[in-house]
Write a structure and sequence with these properties.
The chain is about 30% helix and about 25% strand. It has two helices and three strands. Strand 1 and strand 2 form a beta hairpin. The longest helix has 16 residues. The radius of gyration is 18 Å and the shape is elongated. It binds zinc ion.
Length: about 70
């Protein structure tokens, strides 16, 4: 399963209960609390930042990193 916890009781026994305005909605099976989690998207940016850092640490120039990843200044 996914690493999602109920924000109310920190229970991991969560069930999906549909998607509302682009957000996955979840229901806690423990306390019946409904909550939604933003869909992945921001984490892709984070992935690129980490990737860029790894390349940088390997001695690749920023110019090269930009070329490899395909983004301008991070
Ligand atoms: Zn709960």
């Amino acid at each position: 399963m996914q690493e999602i916890q109920c924000p109310k009781c920190s229970n991991e026994n969560i069930s999906k209960s549909g998607i509302i305005s682009g957000r996955q909605r979840y229901k806690c099976k423990n306390c019946n609390y409904h909550f939604s989690v933003a869909k992945l998207g921001k984490s892709i940016d984070k992935y690129y930042v980490i990737k860029a850092l790894q390349l940088y640490l390997e001695g690749i120039s920023l110019r090269e990193i930009e070329r490899i990843i395909g983004v301008s200044h991070v």
